């Protein structure tokens, strides 16, 4: 590859003084650096000089006519790297011995997944992303039930690297770094929501081998779906059956309960009334916002230390780190934005220091859950664990 053909990074100043530098990898995938305010990194970024195979074809979706769910069949994901050592970490900055995915030292980096479940094709061509010939023209088309229906799995899957270090998680970052990641989430949510054919954007972090994590590097992902997910579809049905202000009513009810574990001026964290998992926490903003892109600077500023304290409390429950899925539920791009409120759902299968909850017949096959830990007890344990952590992690001098 002629590295002279690769574009220079474009630069943009975001909230909290975060600097965004957008460029591309050797095979045309997007790569975006998000620099901490006051970063010690220079403005230069190395060019990705690797010779890479062509990107895999966009996966195919098949309709499950029994449920109405679309199932993506992405065979390219079978070849993902499994728990590499530090010298072969694909998310670490490139070195002569490790031709990783990120050419330069970074604070936070976001790039298109090399083995995506969705994309790179879109409903309409954008830049290097091709148009899918059978791209869906709307939700009504996707909702039609029939045997043998297929679609191209248009969309985007991105990796969000929280740190250049080989190991850790969101909770091991400094407040400054957490704030940079939150800014990146908000910026990517806004950008991905504008892509043709995208119906919902989902940032999340999988943490721990028990969850199925394949890389120990501190990172999360963002999925941009070509449909509204089944979970959000059911949520919108519940809102339709109750009231448009359902989230405001839930927040008021939970704030008056004994299940609150952490509260600030803009956010409240609580164990929900009908928690399924042994450890489950929801985090809601106090005002209605549809997604992270709609949050204010003040809300993002408070979220960084509050979310870190919540995660460190989760880890303080036991002597070893707790596996979890941290899921940022956002409103769909085109529907329900005035009723579906942004919220975090953090769940863990850990029910004791050396025990995990496995989904057996009733839960896995029928979706009929039985919870072993009363939500009020779970909230009390988590409050005690949070109290054992530092009340406010400092913005400087922590692991990043």
Automatic annotation (TrEMBL):
Q: Which residues form the signal peptide?
A: none
The EC number on file is 2.7.7.12
Catalytic activity annotated for this protein? alpha-D-galactose 1-phosphate + UDP-alpha-D-glucose = alpha-D-glucose 1-phosphate + UDP-alpha-D-galactose
Q: Name one GO molecular function term.
A: nucleotidyltransferase activity
Specify the enzyme's EC class, one word: transferase
Under the heading Pfam families, the entry gives: GalP_UDP_tr_C, GalP_UDP_transf
Domain Galactose-1-phosphate uridyl transferase C-terminal stretches? 255-383
Database matches in InterPro entries: GalP_UDPtransf1 (IPR001937), GalP_UDPtransf1_His-AS (IPR019779), GalP_Utransf_C (IPR005850), GalP_Utransf_N (IPR005849), HIT-like_sf (IPR036265)
Q: Where is the Galactose-1-phosphate uridyl transferase N-terminal domain?
A: 62-228
Q: In which pathway does it act?
A: Carbohydrate metabolism; galactose metabolism
Q: Give UniProt keywords alphabetically.
A: Carbohydrate metabolism, Galactose metabolism, Metal-binding, Nucleotidyltransferase, Transferase, Zinc
According to its UniProt record, which cofactors does this protein need?
Answer: Zn(2+)
PANTHER family in the record, alphabetically? GALACTOSE-1-PHOSPHATE URIDYLYLTRANSFERASE (PTHR11943)
Similarity annotation: Belongs to the galactose-1-phosphate uridylyltransferase type 1 family.
Task: State the protein's name.
Answer: Galactose-1-phosphate uridylyltransferase
Q: Species lineage, top-down?
A: Bacteria, Bacillati, Actinomycetota, Actinomycetes, Micrococcales
